[in-house]
Amino acid sequence: MARWAISDIHGCCQTFRYMVETELQITKEDELFLLGDYIDRGKDSKGVFDYIMQLQNDNFKVQCLMGNHEDTG
């Protein structure tokens, strides 16, 4: 089991997917901690959220924290 942390994805879904699938090659026994800032700057913020939900629905252990870019208050 490995533990990984990724922060500041900023809408870069293609890069995020590459990191998870190719570089980290996470398994369902690993834990992935996402440290916020999923949106803004990149061109596919929705894709980032869709991919995170796909991982969770496929029973990968993904924990998400809210970053300042998600804080609307």
Give your account of this protein's structure.
There is one protein chain. The chain is α/β, with parallel strands linked by helices. It has one domain. The chain has two helices and three strands. A three-stranded parallel sheet has the order 1-2-3, covered by helices on one side. β2, α2 and β3 form a beta-alpha-beta unit. α1 packs parallel to α2. The longest helix is centred in the C-terminal third of the chain and has 13 residues. It is globular. It starts with a strand and ends in a 9-residue tail after the last strand.
Keywords:
73 residues; alpha/beta; 2 helices; globular
Major sheet characteristics: 3 strands, parallel
Return the string of H and E elements: EHEHE
* Overall tally of structural domains: 1
Helix amount: 25-40%
Structural class: alpha/beta
Task: Summarize the structure in short.
The protein is of the alpha/beta class.
Secondary structure: elements and pairs:
Layout: E1 3-6, H1 13-24, E2 31-34, H2 45-57, E3 61-64
Parallel strand pairs: 1-2, 2-3
Helix pairs in contact: 1-2
